[in-house]
Design goal:
Alpha-Beta Plaits, alpha+beta, about 270 residues, globular, binds magnesium ion, binds 2'-deoxyguanosine-5'-triphosphate
Amino acid sequence: MAKSKFEYVRSFETDDTCLRNCYIVVRLDGRNFHKFAEQHNFKKPNDDRALGLMARSACSVMEDLEDIAIAYGQSDEFSFVFKRSTNWFKRRGSKLMTHVASQFSSSYVFYWKEYFGDQPLLYPPGFDGRVVLYPTNRNLKDYLSWRQADCHINNLYNTAFWTLVQKGGLSTCEAEERLNGTLSADKNEMLFSEFNMNYNNESPLHRKGTTLIWEKVDETSTKTITLPNEEEKTVTFTRSRRKVAALYCDIIGDSFWEEHPDILEKDG
Ligand code: DGT
Ligand code: MG
Ligand code: MG
Ligand code: MG
Ligand code: MG
């Protein structure tokens, strides 16, 4: 095919192929969600509608794009881990990241009403994205541990803060001052002794965030067939299908990875 004289501009495109053998992580984060949460009356410190909608949108990303092995989300962020052997879009970072971001954003708007009911969506939300490569299983597990530790630290702080305000009658300034310099143990103790709350009994969704993995399910269905002698017969058959499952568990320790050995591919 003859090439136009303009064709050379294609060579200005930069190569952003992700290094082979590495897990490709795409992390999205809501743009200016501090304001978005205020304007849409998100409950403090955790709004289950908002967390549910984030997980629903992430589920749509996993179902509609190729080769995502696991996803983890908390607050206004979600991380998607592509299989280290993926060759989707020839491992082009910009393609992977923009497909994740746009599928997620459109799903967030599409499913909004299912989660927020009468609360109108006041303006179109946006999400930023980044791509990070992790070469070893240890690095990838440490990445996910880092995000879950972040969830824990923020949620313990926010739970203590809003308990002081909502149940303790402190102003937000007073609550901030009260928590200034406290360690995790101090916050746990304060919740327990002053408000009779055991932090470990708080919702696992809030303490641990949402982990999405693929689960095999056997689907049984029945069908009526006509035999050659014109007799009708009902047969049942089972087929194995995979489906996204949401977990609210610890992913820092080894037990999660031992229970789900298929998520990671062997190093080297
Ligand atoms: P960014 O990411 O730099 O554009 O700015 P933000 O404002 O999105 O900051 P970020 O991502 O560090 O923090 C997430 C914000 O989202 C944080 O201000 C609290 C808010 N947020 C997330 N989930 C909830 C929730 O369930 N309830 C409430 N009230 N706020 C939430
Ligand atoms: Mg940020
Ligand atoms: Mg944000
Ligand atoms: Mg964030
Ligand atoms: Mg095209």
